[in-house]
Amino acid sequence: MNIENYQIESHNSDLLAKHQRKLAFVTEEVSNAQDIIQKLIDFQIGIPSWALGTGGTRFGRFSSGGEPRNIEEKIEDIGLLHKLNAASGSISLHIPWDTAENVPAIKALVAQQGLSFDAMNSNTFQDQANQAHSYKFGSLQHVDKAVRKQAIDHNIEVIRQGVELGSKALTVWLADGSCFPGQLNFRKAFQNTLESLQEIYAALPADWKVFVEYKAFEPNFYSTTVGDWGQSLLYANKLGPKAFTLVDLGHHLPNANIEQIVALLLMEGKLGGFHFNDSKYGDDDLTAGSMKPYQLFLIFNELVEGMDARGMNHSKDLGWMIDASHNVKDPLEDLLQSVEAIMLAYAQALSVNRTALQQAQAENDVARAQEILQQAFRTDLRPLVAEARLRAGAALAPLDLFRKFNVRQELIKSRGLNTVATGL
Ligand code: AOS
Ligand code: ZN
Ligand code: ZN
Ligand code: ZN
């Protein structure tokens, strides 16, 4: 399925007059509109290889068909997203699900689609077919050294594959923990995990990072060995300068103040990256911005403030990735919606009047501070996000174009109705 430039141009020219009317209005309202547009053009979101098929729960899975059957088709799907929105410029691979047999061919395909490789993900939460030891009772934390060794070796193998491809980071998410009180010695589990991570860390090339992802619960329901940002930060600090915390928005206990967590991790120079999604209850993995758009904006508000305070490059210094699962929506439509929501929250954060906010904070003017944030959140900046796409050669309305070209039907035609993407 290919969308040609002229098709995008003709779609855009139909919408142009209306778009320009809206843009003119926002550009007058927002003093740094041009700067925001340029930053949006530079900003890219990594798409997870495991989110391109229909997700499911233990109660069932209802595919919409045409799912990518292999790594090549996953790359093609992301290339299509990127063509539509010019903001999905990288792919995050999961090993062994996405192990590339022909590395040069995969690299060529990624380059041809205008993409790059985001963080590599290891998998020690499932047992693979010909594996010697089981991860039923954990991997890097395991009481048996042989199991830990197997999990360490797997992570080192993922780094090796990532080096070949040209990735620069490894994300470690562990299901390790315990289901019942008494099952685990917390201190020993932590120490085993730390030692295992240290061996993995030692295998990192000089220009690589490792992201330690935390998660409050699931699949373990009593304790998780990397259960919150404090534990992740402990590991990252003990590991060294190449280790960072990864924040997945769905991995907190209810009502956690994620924006404050982000601010402090940034202050410590230990925020590595994100898994964007949204949730109402737990690790729901819903479309970014679909439940708590104000929270997403507040997170970006801290990100912009903190990155600017540290002189960081917004687009390059952190790993911006989506981690989502799609049960009822078309995965590609859902990803377009997530990217749009992330871009919008970023634009809103960039539009905050920082000088005025700092002054309100210094004067303890609480009402004024709230007004400043809500002014940014409530101004409709979607025309700026659309303008960034337009200038980057993408579609003014990606989802509409996706539907107009019957992309899903075309994918079903070429791949079949009963395809299953590897992954979750
Ligand atoms: C699991 O809950 C984590 O969010 C992981 O980052 C991710 O979903 C997983 O690695 C994909 O299987
Ligand atoms: Zn995640
Ligand atoms: Zn998760
Ligand atoms: Zn999640």
UniProtKB/TrEMBL annotation:
Keyword Acyltransferase among record annotations: no
Keywords: Isomerase, Manganese, Metal-binding
Record's protein name: L-rhamnose isomerase / sugar isomerase
Ranges for domain Xylose isomerase-like TIM barrel: 100-285
GO molecular function: isomerase activity; metal ion binding
